[in-house]
Amino acid sequence: MVLVVGFRFGSVAFCALDQSRCSVESCDSQYARLVQEITMKRMKTLPVRLTPGQDLRAALEAAVLAQNCRAAFVLSGIGSLSTAGIRLAGAAQPTRLTGSMEILTLSGTVAASGDKTGSHMHMAISTATGQVLGGHVAPGCIVLTTAEVLLALLPEWQFTREPDAQTGYDELVIRPRG
Predict the structure, then answer these.
(1) 46: Cβ–Cβ under 8 A, 6 or more apart, which residues?
(2) Which of 12, 32, 65, 77 is most buried, most CB within 10 Å of its CB?
(3) Domain assignment of residue 38, given as a range
(4) Are residues 32 and 50 in the same domain?
(5) pLDDT, tens digit, for every residue of 2-61?
(6) Are residues 128 and 156 in the same domain?
(7) Do both 64 and 120 map to the same domain?
(8) Is 81 exposed, middle or buried (0-12, 13-18, 19+ CB in 10 A)?
């Protein structure tokens, strides 16, 4: 099944395709069914508040595992950090920062397996001087006062990262959990 997202008359329309084409008219009923299925049966939201001293990435992975889940998306995230590790685009190693920083936005996937992390998150932070940086969230981002994160848990799925010959990087692999 393929999920197609499109815009129709200023609103979002979803349509599921099963080997056949779906007309715009039939998308409305399928859209309602899919939204109900995803939000009521398969996706569960989990608000999380992290406290001073916690490692942002490790704590989010632990929160997902504690829900007996292996896959989640970060829907939103704000807070503050005392230490940050951000891997900038094209950089081999993360840039390390210390001091008071604000998390302006946080998004990405959380892959919780317990042994090897496959999470891939990005964030934008601002320093005490107002400098804004963004990139990949590296381990070692330590919460200063709070981090308020809303997760979308996907209990029927598992995320891993595996080598991709086309990109040369470990990329997201999505599998049904079983």
Answers:
(1) 63, 64, 67, 72, 150, 151, 152, 153
(2) 77
(3) 2-42
(4) no
(5) 343 433 334 444 444 343 444 444 455 554 554 555 555 578 999 999 999 999 999 999
(6) yes
(7) yes
(8) buried
